Each structure stands twice: as structure tokens, then as C-alpha cells.
Amino acid sequence: MLKKLVLFDIDGTLLKVGCINRQILIDALKEIFGTEGSAGSHDFSGKMDSAIIYDVLSGTDLERYQIAEKFDAVKQSYIRRFRAETRASDITLMAGVRELLETLAHRTDLLPGILTGNFEASGRHKLKLPGIDHYFSFGAFADDGFHRNELPTVAVERAFNLTGKKFSGNDIVIIGDTVHDITCAKSVNAHCIAVATGNFSFDELRKNHPGTLFENLSRTGNVIHSILNP
After folding, report:
1. What is the mean pLDDT of each run of 10 residues along the chain (230 residues)?
2. CATH architecture entry for 20-85
3. Which pLDDT does position 117 carry in this prediction?
4. What confidence score (pLDDT) does residue 82 get?
5. How high is the pLDDT of residue 31?
6. Environment class of 12 (CB within 10 Å of its CB; exposed 0-12, middle 13-18, buried 19+)
7. CATH assignment of 4-16+92-228, given 3.50.20.10, 1.10.357.10, 3.40.50.1000, 3.40.50.720?
8. What is the pLDDT of residue 210?
9. What is the pLDDT of residue 10?
């Protein structure tokens, strides 16, 4: 019997992508807009791809409506380039991730899904390269909203369509590596498991009061216990 919906962030939580990710975005922006804006130095941690495009171009001469007019073109250019250029060697799985996902796959009480700032096509490619995409039958992505806090509702609805169970409150567990993941979980009264495997330190995450905080996901039993006992 299903008890918990377990939603994972991708970058910094499940895996890390090398510097090729930033360069691909820069190339896409230059192709469509003729400028990279602040993409070379912008902090992407916990941000939505949909918002990042606007953010990095905000200091240029482009008006917001001009960015909007070519938003889909730059999105498709980024996705096309990412899928063509990124290799398995560019991806590093975080400690314990494969073991945790394999454990979840053998449980009938826990339903894993994705909640990420990635566009679905590029996010799925990140998961496919190290062979973990098959663990996730659904998710909520940057295609589904402009702000991360919009995504839990999308994920809950897709989980309901898949299983017939409506998850809410502590039935929802969001696992992520940034303060944005913590804020997102709190927005729907979900349980947040924060991991200090991204660009936010253990102390920075702790100051934002996640439900549980781990250095990484390597202690599978402890992670499962936290999922079941918020």
C-alpha cells in the first residue's frame, strides 16, 4: 500500500554535470540572442531553467517581451545541444544514489518521482546517461512552471493519475540540495530531506530548517527511515 510520494531534485542531489552544461546554455543563448548575458557566472543552484533564461539576460539591452518571443527557440536550442553533446562521462552520480533508488524500486509503499528545475527533455537525458531514468515514471519539470513552488502540485496530480492516490502534507517527501528545495517543501507542508551534496553547505542548509539533513544519501537505511518517519 502506497504511503509516501518521494520527489527528487536532479542536479546536486542525484548527480552532477560537468561544466559542459553551462557552456551549452551559453552557446544556445548566443545562437538565438547574440549574447550570453550573465550565463558565464550566474548561480544556477536550485533555479528553474525557465527562469534562468530570463535572469541571465536581464542585464542586457533585451526587453522582457523580446526574450519571451524567442524563449521557445532558445529552449529548443539548449535541449538539442545538450542531448547531442553531453556524454555519460560528463555525469557523476552522487554517493548512495543508485543503491537508494534500487531499494525504492523494490518497495510498494514508496513512489519515487522527479521535482526539478530542469526542462524535461534535458533532465531526462541527465538521468538516462548514468542509467537511472527508469526509476522515475513521472515528474514535474521547468516546462510545468516558472517557480519551483508551483511544481509539487503538478507532481501530486501526476502521481494521482498514475496510482489513484492523492498525496498531501507529510505524505510528500522532497529531497534536494538547496534552500530552494526546503522552501518548496514548506510551501506544501511536505517533509524535506536536504543533502549537502550541492553548492549549499551543511550549515547553510541547517539554518533553513529542513525536516532532515544528511551529508549525502549514502546511508540508505537512514534515508528510508527519514522518508517513513518525518
Report:
1. 96 95 95 94 88 93 95 97 96 98 97 97 98 98 95 98 96 97 97 97 98 98 96
2. Orthogonal Bundle (1.10)
3. 96
4. 97
5. 97
6. buried
7. 3.40.50.1000
8. 98
9. 98
> Which pLDDT belongs to residue 44?
87
Residue-wise DSSP of the chain: ---EEEEE--BTTTEEE-THHHHHHHHHHHHHHS--TTTTT---TT--HHHHHHHHHTTSS--HHHHHHTHHHHHHHHHHHHHHH--GGGEEEPTTHHHHHHHHHT-SSEEEEEE-SS-HHHHHHHHHTTT-GGG-S-EE-GGG-SSGGGHHHHHHHHHHHHHS----GGGEEEEESSHHHHHHHHHTT-EEEEETTSSS-HHHHHTT--SEEES-S--HHHHHHHHH--
What residues does each domain of the chain span?
4-16+92-228, 20-85
In angstroms, rounded to a whole number, what is the distance separating the alpha carbons of residues 119 and 103?
A: 27
Do residues 194 and 212 touch, judged by C-beta distance below 8 A?
yes
